[in-house]
């Protein structure tokens, strides 16, 4: 091909607009860490929670029932014998700093599980390890001691004292721990500030809305400064909008607090919104543990699949989840030299022009690329690349996609092109996981060779 003017006049480093400015969901190691706090007086343990073959059976002959369950009996068979198997063979490994959601229908055993995690309910069999210490082997006194130092609880119905001020309510946990008055008021005031209730210290709970009362409940738990926060249906009594707001606040708070949060809910959308990982329970058993994405795309069984089929995928899935990793790219400098190679490739696709670092600076539309190949014309480089971060939810991409003539450019934290999303791909992914093929193994096809 002859010489062409491959000009990208005055190309800015970042072209187009950045859509979907949603924050990156903190997950595990990528989060900013606060210093590890030490629990229970031991130097090297941190507050993670682990369960091993944990069972809780209510009613007659619980040990026998566990043996039957271990032998493969179904819960329905057990129930007829006057016993209820509330938790069956729970094996969980909850990581430090994660928001771990236990999700299941009413009666699936969530609260029973939680009450064994904090030692309020003795296990029928199996172990609960908190920061490596075997809670199930402790005396009541030891268990209480461990609980106080490591765990705080937020309840569904706020559990506020109507005749105490907001501040005194927030300080209550510290009061029963014997913390002196000045100290507990200081800590409670700080916790109220964290939950957005500064200025309300002297009010009575009755003067507060439901959402605010639950924030007092949360402040009470935070004031105790424990590593682990247990929340049983903590937002379930709130109106939908306030509930959504509380979910956002908790996620926001968690970015700096970095607690280990064990959150119980029967609401799948809530689970997917706030959970780093989710455990799905049914009839006392944990059917699957995974990220929202893992559960949506690889349900462990028919139950989980059916359970999750109505989830709003556009809220849960991110650009990174659905992008095409096989974008054709070429560096601006190599464009001329590489064009024959690009043109010879089968199919005429959009070509992204990137700078030396791999950041998108322009795009050659599929039509233009086709015209250039067939008609020998110079392809037009359009500078209007619309960039979106990998963490953007699908929901946030629709407007950008509709407004752009080209696929969206998905960029990583350093602004480098990591994949692309065409309108078809976006619509397919929003409707059905199967329409969004995932092939993380395949890297971007580097038409630019060594140039980047
Ligand atoms: N103290 C108890 N004595 C007997 N059975 C119990 C007891 N506590 C719970 N159960 C039974 O254990 C099963 C699990 O109850 P659990 O309260 O853990 O469920 P859950 O998932 O928290 O439900 P919900 O969403 O309604 O709070 C249920 O069948 C329940 O009736
Ligand atoms: Mg419950």
UniProtKB/TrEMBL annotation:
CDD domains: ABC_Pro_Gly_Betaine (cd03294). Pfam families: ABC_tran. Keywords: ATP-binding, Nucleotide-binding, Transport. Residues 49-308 form the ABC transporter domain. GO terms for molecular function: ATP binding. Residues 10-35, 430-452 are annotated as: Disordered. SMART domains: AAA. Gene3D superfamilies: CBS-domain, P-loop containing nucleotide triphosphate hydrolases. Residues 430-439 have a biased composition (Low complexity). Transmembrane segments: none annotated. It comes from the Bacteria. PROSITE patterns: ABC_TRANSPORTER_1, ABC_TRANSPORTER_2. InterPro entries: AAA+_ATPase, ABC_osmolyte_uptake_ATP-bind, ABC_transporter-like_ATP-bd, ABC_transporter-like_CS, CBS_dom_sf, Gly-betaine_transp_ATP-bd, P-loop_NTPase. Belongs to the ABC transporter superfamily. PANTHER family: GLYCINE BETAINE/PROLINE BETAINE TRANSPORT SYSTEM ATP-BINDING PROTEIN PROV, GLYCINE BETAINE_PROLINE BETAINE TRANSPORT SYSTEM ATP-BINDING PROTEIN PROV. This is Glycine betaine/L-proline ABC transporter ATP-binding protein. It comes from Tomitella cavernea.
């Amino acid at each position: 091909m002859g010489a062409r003017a491959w000009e990208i006049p005055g190309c800015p480093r970042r072209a187009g607009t950045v859509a979907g400015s949603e924050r990156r969901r903190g997950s595990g190691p990528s989060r900013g860490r606060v210093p590890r706090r030490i629990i229970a007086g031991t130097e090297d343990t941190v507050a993670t929670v682990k369960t091993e073959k944990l069972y809780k059976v209510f009613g007659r002959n619980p040990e026998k029932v566990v043996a039957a369950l271990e032998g493969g009996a179904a819960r329905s068979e057990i129930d007829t014998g006057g016993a209820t198997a509330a938790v069956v063979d729970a094996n969980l490994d909850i990581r430090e700093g994660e928001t771990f959601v236990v999700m299941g229908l009413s009666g699936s055993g969530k609260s029973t599980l939680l009450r064994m995690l904090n030692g309020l309910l003795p296990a029928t069999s199996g172990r609960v390890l908190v920061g490596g210490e075997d809670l199930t082997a402790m005396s009541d006194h030891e268990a209480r001691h461990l609980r106080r130092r490591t765990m705080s609880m937020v309840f569904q119905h706020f559990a506020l004292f109507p005749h105490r001020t907001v501040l005194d309510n927030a300080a209550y946990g510290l009061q029963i721990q014997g913390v002196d008055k000045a100290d507990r008021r200081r800590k409670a005031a700080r916790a109220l500030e964290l939950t957005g209730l500064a200025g309300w210290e002297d009010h009575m709970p009755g003067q507060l809305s439901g959402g605010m009362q639950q924030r007092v409940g949360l402040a009470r738990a935070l004031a105790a400064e424990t590593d682990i926060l247990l929340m049983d249906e903590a937002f379930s009594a709130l109106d939908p909008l306030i509930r959504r707001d509380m979910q956002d606040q908790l996620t926001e708070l968690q970015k700096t607090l970095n607690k280990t949060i064990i959150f119980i809910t029967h609401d799948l959308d809530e689970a997917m919104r706030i959970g780093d990982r989710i455990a799905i329970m049914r009839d006392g058993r944990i059917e699957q543990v995974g990220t929202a994405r893992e559960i949506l795309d690889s349900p462990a069984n028919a139950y989980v699949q059916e359970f999750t089929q109505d989830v709003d995928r556009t809220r849960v899935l991110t650009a990174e989840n659905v992008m095409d990793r096989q974008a054709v790219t070429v560096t601006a400098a190599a464009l001329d030299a590489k064009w024959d190679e690009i043109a010879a490739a089968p199919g005429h696709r959009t070509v992204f022009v990137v700078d030396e670092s791999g950041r998108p600076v322009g795009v050659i539309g599929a039509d233009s690329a086709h015209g250039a190949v067939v008609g020998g014309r110079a392809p037009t480089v359009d500078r209007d690349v619309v960039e979106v971060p990998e963490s953007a939810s699908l929901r946030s991409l629709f407007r950008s996609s509709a407004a752009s003539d080209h696929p969206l450019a998905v960029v990583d934290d350093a602004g480098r092109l990591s994949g692309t999303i065409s309108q078809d791909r976006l619509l397919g992914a929003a409707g059905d996981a199967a329409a969004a093929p995932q092939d993380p193994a395949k890297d971007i096809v580097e038409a630019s060779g060594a140039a980047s």
